């Protein structure tokens, strides 16, 4: 079982290792340089806030659009562009929820110092994820649920949380590891995370690595 993951590791393991190193550098130094070639002809520099915005942009969209927007807007653009400028830029890339995402980016500016404090609390990714969820509820920051918080934490170097997106969920269902339910509740999300941890234990992988391999199996790309 899971021969496809073993094959993916043999094929793109060096790309996954490189991506994980980029994530760790971002969490450690506050800035990193991504090179998505040969899967996407994009290279970009990111800081922690622009990575948070990338995760907001990618929800209900795609990693490719999120990456291209992250490069277009840039580190300073996420901090300083007006709401109208953000809407215009996001719209040009065909994002279905340009106004909503621009609103969330502007709102995230107000709460980012609290986000940094939570990350620097040096707890596990899962503990930090719960604290982030509480903070988002407190400040009425929408669109930052379990999946988005896990995505962000993985991308700043935490490797003990799972990103249960449509690709991962489809993989789990195909392998009969989670029920085939239409709604991804918190209970199902955490169940899926535990099933993925079982796979990690069998294959000696972290959740961060496993996610990138499953994404590759489903898309033939190693992105983020």
From TrEMBL:
Spans traversing the lipid bilayer: none
Annotated active site: 147, 165
Any one GO molecular function term: hydrolase activity, hydrolyzing N-glycosyl compounds
Catalytic activity as recorded in UniProt: 2'-deoxyribonucleotide-(2'-deoxyribose 5'-phosphate)-2'-deoxyribonucleotide-DNA = a 3'-end 2'-deoxyribonucleotide-(2,3-dehydro-2,3-deoxyribose 5'-phosphate)-DNA + a 5'-end 5'-phospho-2'-deoxyribonucleoside-DNA + H(+)
Signal sequence region: none
Entries under SUPFAM superfamilies matching the protein: DNA-glycosylase
Superkingdom: Bacteria
Enzyme Commission identifier(s): 3.2.2.-, 4.2.99.18
Matches recorded under Pfam families: Ogg-HhH
Name listed for the protein in its UniProt record: 8-oxoguanine DNA glycosylase/AP lyase
Organism: Hydrogenobacter thermophilus (strain DSM 6534 / IAM 12695 / TK-6)
Domain HhH-GPD: 57-219
């Amino acid at each position: 079982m899971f021969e496809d993951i073993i094959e993916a590791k043999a094929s793109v393991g060096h790309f996954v290792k490189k991506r994980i190193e980029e994530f760790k550098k971002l969490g450690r130094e506050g800035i990193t340089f991504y090179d998505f070639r040969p899967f996407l002809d994009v290279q970009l520099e990111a800081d922690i806030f622009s990575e948070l915005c990338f995760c907001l942009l990618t929800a209900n969209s795609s990693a490719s659009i999120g990456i291209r927007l992250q490069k277009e807007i840039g580190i300073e653009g996420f901090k300083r562009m007006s709401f109208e400028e953000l809407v215009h830029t996001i719209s040009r890339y065909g994002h279905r929820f340009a106004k909503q995402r621009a609103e969330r980016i502007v709102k995230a500016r107000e709460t980012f110092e609290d986000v940094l404090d939570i990350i620097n609390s040096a707890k596990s990714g899962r503990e930090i994820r719960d604290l982030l969820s509480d903070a988002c509820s407190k400040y009425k920051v929408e669109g930052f649920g379990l999946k988005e918080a896990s995505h962000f934490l993985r991308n700043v170097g935490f490797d003990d949380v799972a990103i249960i997106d449509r690709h991962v969920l489809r993989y789990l269902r195909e392998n009969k590891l989670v029920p085939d339910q239409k709604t991804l509740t918190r209970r199902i999300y955490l169940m899926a995370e535990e099933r993925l941890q079982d796979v990690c234990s069998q294959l000696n992988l972290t959740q961060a690595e496993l996610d990138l391999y499953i994404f590759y199996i489903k898309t033939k790309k190693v992105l983020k």
